[in-house]
Amino acid sequence: MVKRELVEMRRAEPAAVESLLEEEVAEWSSRLSWQRPRLLEQLRPLVVRGNLAGWLLALDGRPAGKVLVGEQGGVCSLEMAYVSPVWRGQGHLAWLLGRAAADLLAENPDQRLEAGLFPFSREDPGGLLRGAGFHELWRDYMVTDMPDSIPVAAHPLSPWPDELAEPASLLLEAYRGSADAECSAFYTLPDGCRAYLKALLSGSECGGFSRPLSWVHRDGTGALAGLVLGTVLSPGVAHLAQIAVRPDQRGAGLGRSLVAGFMDAARRQGIERLSLIVSRGNATAHDWYQRLGYRPSEPYVCYWRPGSPAR
Ligand SMILES: CC(C)(COP(=O)(O)OP(=O)(O)OC[C@H]1O[C@@H](n2cnc3c(N)ncnc32)[C@H](O)[C@@H]1OP(=O)(O)O)[C@@H](O)C(=O)NCCC(=O)NCCS
């Protein structure tokens, strides 16, 4: 029987944390073509100073995994949950998440908690979380090589705006009542959408923001009707990080035009591979991306436990 322990990050040996982070970053690069060198740069000083919030998983006294605690738009989240490949498939990931969530809830039982991760194995990470009142939503990381023929934009597209207020309120409206808004509270809070967009633009969230790959469409009155936000995950790999069309403008090909703008610009930038993440329950978008050539490559799962701050 393996002895499992959670060690608070600030008490953990910095070299052990750093080596887990390096292992995780290398796995993201090989499995997802998603390079995160800045993440290591940003986290290293925090690790050394003991300022990183979260836990190290020790198995028989040896570092085997970790989970960090973050905050977005006032909501507490379990981030970057990771167990080394040699320890996978034995329930350690579910134990790590369950124990970390239990510790956070012991401090503040009414708080909303969210978690999102690539399990990188067939293991079910949610066993303990479901028992503690968490809901789950599975997403797919999808990829496609740049196709020979791409859709043509039938709508005029304008460059991404400097001011985030309009894109933030469009996101709020576009995701209202959706499964994505159930699991990510930032979609339900005006400040949350702005904070999320700011994180995307800063490069801390989802690859490096690319202005040339990002577009908006304005309706006849000049109001924002749709947006697409592109990032670059590694040389030659672009990610469709966000796409949203105002509900009253849907079904008329605007989404297709925005994707066309993103793909055409990506091709001009020499991009060879495209990726995105979409919820399996979002059948419209999931089926549509497959028609465009995207194929599921890695599952991503989100867990959330309702609580305060509420929508
Ligand atoms: C997904 C979204 C951007 C699509 O925008 P849209 O302007 O309605 O898209 P389009 O009219 O260009 O349609 C895109 C495709 O979906 C199909 N489609 C649109 N509405 C549909 C519906 N209600 N049912 C089934 N298919 C539908 C279209 O046929 C089209 O496919 P095709 O090009 O192969 O014919 C829009 O629904 C949205 O903003 N949703 C909320 C945000 C979201 O889910 N974003 C995606 C997260 S990855």
Report what the structure shows.
This protein is an alpha+beta fold and 311 residues long. It folds into 2 domains: 4-130, 3-Layer(aba) Sandwich (Aminopeptidase), CATH 3.40.630; 145-305, Gcn5-related N-acetyltransferase (GNAT) (Aminopeptidase, 3-Layer(aba) Sandwich), CATH 3.40.630. The chain contains 9 helices and 12 strands. The protein has helices spanning 14-32, 37-49, 92-107, 127-131, 165-174, 179-183, 190-202, 254-268, 283-291, and strands at 4-8, 54-59, 62-72, 75-83, 113-117, 135-145, 158-159, 208-218, 224-234, 237-245, 273-279, 295-305. The protein has a 12-stranded mixed β-sheet with strand order 1-2-3-4-5-12-6-11-10-9-8-7, with helices on both faces. Strand 2 (54-59) and strand 3 form a beta hairpin. Helix 1 (14-32) packs antiparallel against helix 2 (37-49) and helix 5 crosses helix 7 (190-202). It is globular, with a radius of gyration of 20 Å. The N and C termini lie far apart (43 Å). The mean pLDDT is 95. It binds coenzyme A.
